[in-house]
Amino acid sequence: QVQLVESGGGLVQAGGSLRLSCVVSGRDFSRYSMGWFRQAPGKERNFVAAITWGGGSTYYADSVKGRFTISRDNAKNTVYLQMNSLKPEDTAVYYCATNRRPLSLGLPTAPRTYDYWGPGTQVAVSS
Question: Are the C-beta atoms of residues 89 and 4 closer than 8 Å to each other?
Fold first, then answer.
């Protein structure tokens, strides 16, 4: 059974930083690209960042480019999202997800291309 568990969310002031973690079990983590998404109340779930299975390539939404960094440690089955210079509009529930295709070279942004999801971790940024 594949399980993903996010952690690291919380309340932070604008301009602050948080580091999210997502631990994956039940799947050969090192073979799958990973993504981070977020969903604000009343809004759709949106792509934030993705990283290839080997960690060699990353891709970001324009809204977080230059502020967020995605990384992974395949030895620990963990993907991270370092979030700096946080803004109130970053407030959302953040989800990690595994891509459907093993050893894919792409970095898809559509939620439908990811098959397993964590329960999410809340990030709140105050102004």
Answer: no
The pLDDT of 78-107, averaged and rounded, is 94
- Closest to 95 (Cα-Cα) out of 60, 119, 74: 119
What spatial distance separates the first Cα and last Cα of the chain, rounded to whole Å? 40
Model confidence band, residue 29 (pLDDT cutoffs 50, 70, 90): very high
What ranges in the chain are assigned the alpha helix state H?
none
3-state secondary structure of 120: coil
DSSP percent split of the chain into helix, strand, coil, nearest 5: 5, 55, 40
Determine the Cα–Cα distance for residues 121 and 105; give it in Å rounded to an integer.
27
Distance CA 82, CA 75 (A): 19
The pLDDT tens digits for 96-126 are: 999 999 888 888 899 999 999 999 999 999 9
Q: Which residue spans within 26-67 are E strands per DSSP? A: 32-39, 45-51, 58-60
Q: Say if CB 16 and CB 123 are below 8 A apart.
A: no
97's tokens? 């997800």
